[in-house]
Predict the structure of COFA1 protein.
Amino acid sequence: LHLIALNSPFSGDMRADFQCFQQAQLAGLKSTYRAFLSSHLQDLATVVRKTDRYHLPIVNLKGETLFNNWESIFNGNDGQFNIHVPIYSFDGRNIMTDPSWPQKVVWHGSTANGIRLVSNYCEAWHTADVGAMGQASPLKTGKLLEQNIYSCSNQFIVLCIENSFVSDPHG
């Protein structure tokens, strides 16, 4: 399952699932992509289908492994990944080095176990108000789910996860 960043940073007011869907389509990807965020409807840990949570690796745009499987992101180590494996945007840029994302911080709105934090998810990702708060993680630590609180006015990285595996019949 691919983990790919949106092509630009976003404040706490975002239509993230729609953005993930749209940018995946524009990039020619056939699978469905959902935002790597807890929302008012769903906890982050349940975004990927149950049948795909244990046996499929989580990889970047180029197929390099970030996590052994979806469940391993939520095993209590704050989503630790190898920082030497880049995370790319849908248009192929390395978000860790590209200046389009000046702050190397990723929104998630979740606990370390992938459960929504209603007090810290920018009012279900509908506000960029400076007084509203969102949970996010600085990527330089090599963790996707570090528990830091930021103002929703910040422009941070938004990740998208392929939430259902579709095998390519022409592959």
User: Anything to note?
Assistant: The chain has two helices and eight strands. Strands lie at 3-5, 33-35, 58-59, 65-67, 105-107, 133-138, 148-151, 159-162. The domain at 1-170 is CATH 3.10.100.10 (Mannose-Binding Protein A; Chain A).
